[in-house]
Design a protein that fits this description.
The protein is mostly beta strands. It is built from one helix and three strands; from the N terminus they run E-E-E-H. The protein has a single domain, classed as Ribosomal Protein L9, domain 1, CATH 3.40.5.90. Bound molecules: FE2/S2 (inorganic) cluster (FES).
Amino acid sequence: MHEETPVIVACPNGPLLVRGDVPIENPDGTPVQKNRRTVALCRCGASVLKPWCDGSHKIIGFRTDLDHGDVPQ
Ligand code: FES
C-alpha cells in the first residue's frame, strides 16, 4: 500500500494547510485531535480556535508578502 507523502502548503495571507498523516501536538506534547486529513493551522495568531485557523486572518489583514527583512506588526 502506498503511503501519501504529507504536504504543508503556506497559503498566501492565510494559514498553513497540512495534508496527510501528520500528528499535531500541543506544546506539552498532548495530541490534538484531527477530524480531517487536511487541516488549516493558524499562523497569524488571531484565531480563537488555535491551533486551527478560524478565518480571523482576513479580519486583521494578515499579510505574508512582506519583503525580506520586514518585521510583521
Ligand atoms: S491564519 Fe487564519 S486565523 Fe490565523
